[in-house]
Amino acid sequence: MIALLVAAGALALSTGSLVAVSAAYQGIENRSEQRNPRMAQDGAGNEPVALWAPGYDTVQGLQYSVVSIVPLRNDAPLPPGLDSWPLPGEAILSPALAKAGAEEGISTRLGRDAGRIADVGLSSPTERLAYVRPPSDLVDRDRMFPITGYGEEGQFFGDQLFNDSIGLFTLAITSLLLFPALVLLIVAARVGGEARDRRTALLETMGAGRGSRTLVNLGEAGVPALVGAVLGTGILATVAWTQVSLPFVNMPLPVADLRAASANLALTTVASAAAVLAGVTLLHRRQKKRRRATSGTRPEAQRRAPRWWPALLPVGLLTATRAPGLLAPQNPRLYLVVYAAGVLLTLATLPSAISLLMASTGRLLNRTAFRRGWTGTLVAGRWLTERPGVTARLVAGIVIAIGLIGQVQLHSSRIGQPMIAAKATAARIGTSVLVVQQPKDGTHSAAFLNALPDNVGAFSLQLLPGSGETKGTAVLQAPCPQVQQAMHLPCPEGAQLLHRTDRDPRLSELVNWYGQQNSIILQKGTVPAESVPGGASYIVLMSYGGENLDVSDLTRLARQHLSLSPALSPPGGEWLTGALLKNSRGTWITLFGSCAVLFIGLAIGLNSLAEFVRFSRTVGPLGMLTGRRSLFAFVAAWTLLAPLLVAALLGLLVDLWLSGPLTAPLVGAQISWTVLGWLLSIVAILAVGIWTAATWSAQRAAFTWLPEGD
């Protein structure tokens, strides 16, 4: 009964999550369309009401949208979520951005803080967004779009540009929530199946037809299926209604979107309860007439895995870790195919290998307990030795869940070579070097340079185009005092070459990212330099002492004096934000993966718990004779707790072993120690819970044992 209730709740929670994701994405799309600008079209006869321009900034290493907007009329309509226009030099922030950027000075970085964006103007409660009205002298009509109002389809700005697609979320929920919930349903439908099989045989002997037997099964499972489905949907609704942030991702569910999808949530509740009832009916084992004379109502014996099966574990490990590099070093597609084959073979054979390990441990326990007279340990040793198949089934779900979640996390964290290089650059030089696009207007550049702190040196970096077969060049220049104080180099009398092997890591990284022909020309000259047609001009900022620069303060100065969207960043910063965004998405894997381990662990645990309770009835007389309640605690510890903990540790070690090919530079995946730590913690808690429940159930069953005439 409890198993069916838990299975129905897990199924309702999983299907409800699919509905919640669909509703949330639909709500994001609707609210985004309402605030998207309608661009003024030439000759359309619509008079522009405002100037609009998208931009970007970073907080905590992650990008967010900064929208610059200037009204052209006193009666210009406000963007959704704003109750008044910001004054020149003011910014209106979303609550999530104000909170996330508090330590980075977000309230002054974009301009004077003029208030918060209301929920109606945000695609989601956690969206990071800012509306900024630039100072009058920075309004560039050539780089801003005239708009006639709001309400347009498409992805212009906001979370829509940074979120994963709904297809990826649906795939993650299906594989990490719905599939484990179905496994739990299958197991729950067979928990206590031995007693139901005997009842079915009795009803069949009494002449009950298939319809009557089905009604009996439905009557037994109807209440727990319905209650579990209601509880599962109720948990989802309660979390949304109370605006409790989801663990790991620190994000509440959109209650307004879920309220709009309440009819679909009700349908998932009914469908989940119906699925449980269908599972109980379809998975109910009916005795075959040809076996009734010999086997009666006893369940049929299950076949054991062949003895050679665990020996394939080393083959799977070597196939996954060595074969891809040998068979497909230059073919990424074949590389992943060979790797996947090795992973599947490893996960398929690891449970049998663990069962053999526990069987060997059981034989050791037998010898030790026999000499010492330890009753509980002796019984546990005999169990482990004689029932390796039970142990294999117990640990299979845990091993597969850990392996599946580990692979999903690794594949979702794969980053390209530029992202890997950007992370290495950030580790070497931090923010001691910042690069910003140089505007065409030299007046703005001069105002920005004059406002810089005393410990910051400024350089001009120009990427000059080549001609014909001649490659372009990169030129870095500044007055002599800047070169001497920031780079600690003598003033160059002519053209001095900087290479990737320079002793100063800041110069080395500049060459890595901006060098033409693997070098940069250093020369003395003015800052800012005159722009060259066809080239690109940047301003490079360096700290005199090599310490990290205050990005927030320099961004504020750049927005005040330089341009609408200056985007100061370290060398390779645009790739670094992409890498950090991929890493942040790993929190969803942690959330869904934790639920997957919980569901599969409950499935395997309930199955093993039921078998252990049946075994406790068999040894009930032993419990009565010894009078020791600790007997069943020892047996449950060795037969349930120990295999689960061993499976968790070996599963994580194998997962680390299998991560080698994916963390190679060719693939670029990153291990998440947070995900692995949470998986280990959840399995440990689950194992202790199953052990405690098994001990209590076995003691209760054994100490109420009465002799029967059998």
Overall 3D shape:
elongated
Over all CA atoms, what is the radius of gyration?
A: 33 Å
Separation of termini? Answer: 28 Å
Strand order of the largest sheet: 1-7-2-3-6-4-5
Number of strands: 13
SS-based class: alpha+beta
Give a structural overview.
By secondary structure, this protein is α+β, with helices and mostly antiparallel strands. The protein has helices at 2-35, 95-100, 106-109, 166-190, 193-205, 210-241, 255-260, 262-282, 289-295, 313-321, 323-327, 332-372, 375-386, 388-412, 417-429, 442-450, 480-487, 505-514, 551-561, 573-584, 586-618, 620-626, 630-658, 673-702, and strands at residues 37-39, 50-59, 62-71, 90-93, 112-116, 129-133, 145-150, 433-437, 456-464, 473-478, 496-499, 519-524, 536-543. A hairpin with an 8-residue loop joins strand 9 (456-464) and strand 10. The radius of gyration is 33 Å and the shape is elongated. Residues 287-303 have low confidence and may be disordered.
